Amino acid sequence: MASNSSGGGSSDRQRIAQQRLSRIAGHLQRPADGSSAIVAAECKAQGSRADVPGEEKTVPRRRQEVMKWNGWGYSDSRFFFNKKGQAEFTGKRYRLSGLIIPGLKDWFEGTFGASLQHKTPATPILNSSAVQPPNLNEAFVEEVKSAGIPFSHDAEDRVFRAHGHCLHEIFALREGKFGRVPDLVVWPNCHNDVVKIVELACKHNVCLIPYGGGTSVSSALECPPEETRSIVSLDTSQMNRILWIDEKNLTAHVEAGIVGQDLERLLNESGYCTGHEPDSMEFSSLGGWVATRASGMKKNIYGNIEDLVVHVRMVTPQGVIEKGCQGPRMSTGPDVHHFIMGSEGTLGVVTEVTMKIRPMPEYQKYGSVVFPNFEQGVACLREVAKERCAPASIRLMDNEQFKFGHALKPQVSSIFTSFLDGLKKFYITKFKGFDPNRLCVATLLFEGDREKVLQHEKQVYDIAAKFGGLAAGEDNGQRGYMLTFVIAYLRDLGMDYYVIGESFETSVPWDRVLDICRNVKARIIRECKDKGVQFSPLSTCRVTQTYDAGACVYFYFAFNYRGLSDPVHVYEQVEHAAREEILANGGSLSHHHGVGKLRKEWMRETVSKVGMGMLKSVKDYVDPNNIFGNRNLL
Amino acid sequence: MASNSSGGGSSDRQRIAQQRLSRIAGHLQRPADGSSAIVAAECKAQGSRADVPGEEKTVPRRRQEVMKWNGWGYSDSRFFFNKKGQAEFTGKRYRLSGLIIPGLKDWFEGTFGASLQHKTPATPILNSSAVQPPNLNEAFVEEVKSAGIPFSHDAEDRVFRAHGHCLHEIFALREGKFGRVPDLVVWPNCHNDVVKIVELACKHNVCLIPYGGGTSVSSALECPPEETRSIVSLDTSQMNRILWIDEKNLTAHVEAGIVGQDLERLLNESGYCTGHEPDSMEFSSLGGWVATRASGMKKNIYGNIEDLVVHVRMVTPQGVIEKGCQGPRMSTGPDVHHFIMGSEGTLGVVTEVTMKIRPMPEYQKYGSVVFPNFEQGVACLREVAKERCAPASIRLMDNEQFKFGHALKPQVSSIFTSFLDGLKKFYITKFKGFDPNRLCVATLLFEGDREKVLQHEKQVYDIAAKFGGLAAGEDNGQRGYMLTFVIAYLRDLGMDYYVIGESFETSVPWDRVLDICRNVKARIIRECKDKGVQFSPLSTCRVTQTYDAGACVYFYFAFNYRGLSDPVHVYEQVEHAAREEILANGGSLSHHHGVGKLRKEWMRETVSKVGMGMLKSVKDYVDPNNIFGNRNLL
């Protein structure tokens, strides 16, 4: 059935292409020799199977060669406390790399009641013999081999793809514990390879779990423990080419395994960008963005994934789904792109995407504004949204996060710079009367035409002034955004010293923002106390995106679990209560992280019983045998 | 089943509301008397059943009292040729009303080879006895009556709702011919009435066809002739209240039967607008916009319907579908709003919508630009799109439409104004060397903050100048937009004199715009010749919306059918060929008119076999007995 459909899909396209070309041919002058055959030749990129020799893939097949097997990001980059008790960040990849962060220790110990004497190191090496032997479907493996598709059932490769980055997943890995892991990993090189793999999976009844960047924080990648069939991790990382850039239409057609940093880097070489910059962009993939309805930092200019996508191809057990044209906007029934976006790996594998691209901005400018309190800051962001003059990015952090950000300041070599810092601090607190325990900071990023940026900047700062906001310089802004990429490494540091934590997010109408921030943070603190947490938790938030009708609010929650027998269970109870609180206060189930398995229980409340039925009916049609069995969403 | 589901839906909401309130109550200070019960009371608007006495509904139940039964729009407004052979427009509703249009006759006769001597008047009165007696489901009617819901099986009411405004539909009516018509018309007053009607329809197995503005041009409203059950037209026009305006979140919660002109008028009273202005806005309804993925003239500022909608309620045979919150943007699986939008009446009835509203613009300014030729005009629009500086509206018409617009100029009373016109013409043609048979015009509308509008205007005219464009004044722009609302009345005039025609549209990537315009217009002319049309047709287009990745192109096609035995059939063949040509050239099946029954045959090519299967699976789940049996889309 699958093979007919896939084959049918391809010959369908061939037939339609041929029809179209013959119609267009009617307009062309016929060549003198009477030959008027126009053939619909298959695109070169389709045919090419060979890896380009010598071309380094950013994401190697054996990811564990560059990335941590039990924590976030690159192996060569991590926080640690040196002999002097100062925090350092290793490696050479980040602006923070090789620098000393003198204030982190005091902040860490003070905030969590932690001590550098109380250590909880991770299991350093993956013990392969602790991993279940693979449950291979031999017939499937044979056919994959014959098809020339690379594969592995090596324990390290399988463990690497058995998880995302939820707390419980990383905690377990650090303990050297493994649940159900994939039995096989396959690396398709192009769309046609994926068609073949899906065909074979249907034929032999194996469970396929697509794997892009592996950055899920919704337990989406967890292998269902009840799955008895062979589980195959379909790793898209080698399917990462930009097939073409269309400068006339400002689009690019890209294979879905490409990761954000590569997509931008490659487009930049031609003077373009997508501008899609989720915090996970170093590792997350285009296919993953489509599957999870990703949002990017600069969505105010470039849009979220649903605004960026012009065309998508997804391979399903029923065949390939794709629209028949690249029109910018259509009314052709319910938009099937929206059946694909958000499907979280339950319906098929996204293989190729046409995305909008933009010329790279001429000019970029960071900024920051200090507000006397969070309420004023939110009111300012609401006004900026109402006037529809938001910069590329504008984020407001609460007082806790301001202090957190302050603690992450690298040691400055210049006496002058720290003198300036001191001056600023004096000015803001003593002279302007801002209470250091109530003030909060908004970070801003403007980009575009230089003149327009400066005009725009003035407009935003004028609005900020109406709400008691004080411009606090580019440095603070730039640092705020730079820290975005290293924050995830901090959790691993925390977990070395009994501190566990997570971020979670929501979207909410404007008039609910303050209540949600206050109530959720208060609820977290109450629940921690109730559940016996010995130390006050970190419970903090920021308004991280603005929209016409509301905002995205991002929470950090972390605590010192020393003295608890089952810290992960306590964590999960508190997180659950926090989500109940969010929903009660009018917030959504998720702005961009998605549902996965972590938030399934609230799906009915979120989309209604009829909505659930619709989603289920699509799943039952597209994938009746649950080949795409990650069991997300429903 | 349906009654359980609907009842279940309502008690679901009650239960969830109660849960949420009790959670929030945890944060409130308890009153001294210890009473802490917070009750989830049903919204007042829900309970209210009575019509407000004396409140005029813009759309009366008996629509034929104000609107034509066999043509477009208001009965009191029509074009006609007076004794002197000058065109006039009757009534008092429009700017054009009561004015003489001296140039129209010559243009009409010249363009179509028509003659005012050759008349084909419409059947003036509806012959009720020519209408089939209603096929009533007596049990259904009884229960509707007991529920207190107004209904009618009067022939006039039924015929009125048996059609949209496709050419073949109006042509038939003018001949006094009727196909299958609804057997009963019902007028729900609110969401709960709709729930009751759908429940009863499922119980008694009647076919429900939702009826909003009746402006469909996709044969969506046509009653399927093979339908043997009783067909009930569910007219939403009396369900048209703004339930609340939320100034904090800039949203309004509105009943879906409201028509565009009322929605804007009522919001304007509070200083707001939605800014959604489809050409049909005098008559089309909010529910219809949602069901067909409508687009509005000023989408560059306000967005299309998918950008405007924050929350939707739709009543289906399985129950009510609606999301659980009003967050501005979410990642909670595939977006179920996109299963509703574009469903074209096949899944249920949209009853209430939360839409974004904006403060009314401070300032509005029209404009126009003359280009030496269409190619330059398109290149200019493409550049404006690339720089992302499009005005609220920018439209480029081809030379034919420019001449058409010119022919619609009302007689000017002022000698000075016609002197100015003459001067402009001289300047443009003789002085600047524009060829009157190649030049074309773009009309523009700016709105917003006055200072910004003037800046914006300068930016756009500067770009236009790079492409040889010459500013041609506000009047031409304003007139272009004003004509938008009277164009539909012109077809009725044409049909009085052997001329039939239609508009159709597409969306297409930028690099295909010129080819599509040229090829489709040429194809129309060729096909007309092939099919024996005796006179050259009008075959004209305009670029009517710009997007990042392409544009919307709108075609007018009309011809003199004198001498043809089956003019509608010839028309349909040419339209079919035009759509094939559009698709072959990379255009979409529709930008905003939708699919209905008219374009079903191309759905598979449009969304692929798997996409069709997804849509069908949703339909089969939501409406297994095809209660919503208009047979659109699939």
Automatic annotation (TrEMBL), chains A, B:
Its EC number is 2.5.1.26. GO terms for molecular function: alkylglycerone-phosphate synthase activity; FAD binding. The active site is at Y554 (proton donor/acceptor). The keyword 4Fe-4S does not apply. Pfam families: FAD-oxidase_C, FAD_binding_4. InterPro entries: Alkyl-DHAP_Synthase, FAD-bd_oxidored_4_C, FAD-bd_PCMH, FAD-bd_PCMH-like_sf, FAD-bd_PCMH_sub1, FAD-bd_PCMH_sub2, FAD-linked_Oxase-like_C, Oxid_FAD_bind_N. Keywords: Acetylation, FAD, Flavoprotein, Lipid biosynthesis, Lipid metabolism, Membrane, Peroxisome, Phosphoprotein, Transferase, Transit peptide. FAD binds at residues 210-216, 292-295, 344-350. It catalyses: hexadecan-1-ol + 1-hexadecanoylglycerone 3-phosphate = 1-O-hexadecylglycerone 3-phosphate + hexadecanoate + H(+); 1-hexadecanoylglycerone 3-phosphate + a long-chain fatty acid = a 1-acylglycerone 3-phosphate + hexadecanoate; a long chain fatty alcohol + a 1-acylglycerone 3-phosphate = a 1-O-alkylglycerone 3-phosphate + a long-chain fatty acid + H(+). GO terms for biological process: ether lipid biosynthetic process. One of its GO terms (cellular component) is peroxisomal membrane. Its main location: membrane. The record marks R395 as: Important for enzyme activity. Its cofactor is FAD. Residues 178-360 form the FAD-binding PCMH-type domain. It comes from the Eukaryota. Pathway: Lipid metabolism; Glycerolipid metabolism; ether lipid biosynthesis. Substrate binds at R491. Belongs to the FAD-binding oxidoreductase/transferase type 4 family. Homodimer. This is Alkylglycerone-phosphate synthase.
